[in-house]
């Protein structure tokens, strides 16, 4: 990709000269050719240029794509939006689009989407969130893909987080060990923290479901550490909800139920009905 013409467009709109933008980074003659699209610059130089423009790489790439999400970001946005609202028709459309692209990563995404479709359809029919209805071939394909990747970056971590409930529970431990090495590397990166928070929420849910309460408690503490900033208050609220479920599991029913119901009401008041319904499954299982 040659970013020069777009950099020039942004520079002019911001009222900056070439000297202000490129001085000490690249020469004047090279900058002229770069903005014409005839030269490229290294990622390191591009970051320095973007600093002069008061812009980070994520925003620049979004503008470069004409304010459109990347294919992966679009996929995650659609999958999350449709899943959170239980929009099965749109999930089926997404699945059809993914199935048309015959590459491994698109097959992984199609398997993830089909898992989500089957669970939501089952939930709508029975009122029970039951992941045993997914196809074994989808579970195996996702799991084998994650096991094969030696070093995970955020997309693998996000895939693991989004599909934890579909995988064999005992496969979580080596997979989580693999990704936990990356946690400290992403602590100061907002997007990374968000992905880790969601992953921990889903992992805690499965740990409680399978009665690994001490493991769940450790994960809740990790979630709280990642949710200390006001931007993660929603994740912090979910961490408190899991605390209340642990209280119930360990015998303090009165306080546990009171805290859990208060937080479920909070989520519903924020128009997060689907999330509240999914979290309420933990109370129903404790009550059985």
TrEMBL record:
Domain HTH cro/C1-type span(s) in chain numbering:
7-60
Q: Show the coiled coil region(s).
A: none
Cross-referenced Pfam families, in alphabetical order?
A: HTH_3 (PF01381), Rgg_C (PF21259)
Q: A Gene Ontology MF term for this entry?
A: DNA binding
Protein name from the UniProt record:
Transcriptional activator, Rgg/GadR/MutR family domain-containing protein
Q: Which organism is it from?
A: Enterococcus phoeniculicola ATCC BAA-412
